[in-house]
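Researcher: Sequence recovery benchmark, item below. Answer with residues only.
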């Protein structure tokens, strides 16, 4: 995933090693900061790649903080 453009649930599921259903669950969970999808057409919904990259960076920072706190 680069910082430009959009990705589908299928691409994100492959990237994170999970299922499309999990990607949707993450995006609908109010306690999970995973980005919300953007509807870009009548039957087309995608995630902004930059938002996904920001989520990954934030998650990595939290993991490092937890590791250092131990």
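Model:
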């Amino acid at each position: 995933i680069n910082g430009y453009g959009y990705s589908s649930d299928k691409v994100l599921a492959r990237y994170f090693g999970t299922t499309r259903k999990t990607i949707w669950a993450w995006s609908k969970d109010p306690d999970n900061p995973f980005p919300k999808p953007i509807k870009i057409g009548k039957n087309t919904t995608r995630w902004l790649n930059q938002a996904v990259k920001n989520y990954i960076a934030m998650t990595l920072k939290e993991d490092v903080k937890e590791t250092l706190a131990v």
